[in-house]
């Protein structure tokens, strides 16, 4: 068994390392904040009344993932957020969240807003999926 690598001293290829594992720090004492994952779907009258597009209420037909993260006693300026295709990494002075996302997302088209009165960070990410008979637009 031979490992094909550009450097013979490496013990694994970069393709074998899962995305986001570089953020996983088991020795970090910060606690994980409470969070909620919601799925968002845009539907029109052709979906609701006629069922013409074949969409159903499942997550397979959703276009966006909305993640609501509770961050009590946190200021907007203290939040560090890094989003990759399959991983959300959030860091504050008191909290840390490494979240492996249920679907791959387009990390360049995300939005985040901090609702200071509720102390919630709301992150909306566009799901990046292959076109099929449901997701064709």
From TrEMBL:
<dbReference type="GO" id="GO:0070286">
    <property type="term" value="P:axonemal dynein complex assembly"/>
</dbReference>
<protein>
    <submittedName>
        <fullName>PIHD3 protein</fullName>
    </submittedName>
</protein>
<comment type="similarity">
    <text>Belongs to the PIH1 family.</text>
</comment>
<dbReference type="Pfam" id="PF18201">
    <property type="entry name" value="PIH1_CS"/>
</dbReference>
<dbReference type="GO" id="GO:0005737">
    <property type="term" value="C:cytoplasm"/>
</dbReference>
<dbReference type="GO" id="GO:0045505">
    <property type="term" value="F:dynein intermediate chain binding"/>
</dbReference>
<dbReference type="InterPro" id="IPR026697">
    <property type="entry name" value="DNAAF6"/>
</dbReference>
<feature type="domain" description="PIH1D1/2/3 CS-like">
    <location>
        <begin position="32"/>
        <end position="127"/>
    </location>
</feature>
<dbReference type="GO" id="GO:0051087">
    <property type="term" value="F:protein-folding chaperone binding"/>
</dbReference>
<dbReference type="InterPro" id="IPR041442">
    <property type="entry name" value="PIH1D1/2/3_CS-like"/>
</dbReference>
<dbReference type="GO" id="GO:0030317">
    <property type="term" value="P:flagellated sperm motility"/>
</dbReference>
């Amino acid at each position: 068994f031979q490992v094909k690598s550009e450097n013979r001293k490496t013990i694994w290829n970069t393709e074998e390392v899962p995305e986001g594992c570089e953020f996983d720090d088991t020795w970090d004492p910060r606690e994980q904040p409470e969070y909620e994952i919601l799925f968002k779907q845009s539907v029109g009258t052709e979906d609701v009344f006629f069922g013409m597009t074949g969409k159903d209420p499942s997550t397979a037909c959703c276009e966006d993932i909305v993640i609501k993260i509770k961050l009590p006693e946190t200021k907007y300026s203290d939040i560090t957020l890094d989003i990759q295709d399959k991983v959300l990494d959030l860091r504050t002075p008191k909290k840390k969240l490494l979240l492996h996302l249920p679907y791959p997302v387009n990390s360049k088209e995300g939005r985040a807003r901090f609702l200071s009165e509720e102390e919630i960070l709301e992150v909306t990410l566009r799901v990046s999926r292959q076109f099929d008979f449901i997701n064709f637009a």
